[in-house]
Design goal:
Blueprint: H1 4-42, H2 48-58, H3 68-76, H4 80-86
Helix pairs in contact: 1-4
Amino acid sequence: MFNYNTMRKRISNEHLVAYGGIYYSYPISQCIANAVWDVLFENGNGDLRKGGDLLTKHFLSQGSTQEPHQLLKRLCGMTLNDIIDKY
């Protein structure tokens, strides 16, 4: 039998779970982008071509052959938690 209260709880809980993932993905992406920019282009490097080549070689060209957090740690020298804490 259809129970409105049970259905309402399921819908509202699913909404909260999905919304949280979407809401926090953008700020985390900004932290990662800031860290990559600082490491490759700001911290004394300044050479956009060299930074772009490093990004392509060590991160983008790997595709899905390695875990993203491992690629990020190798590229930036920081874990995702360190990046979030710093930025």
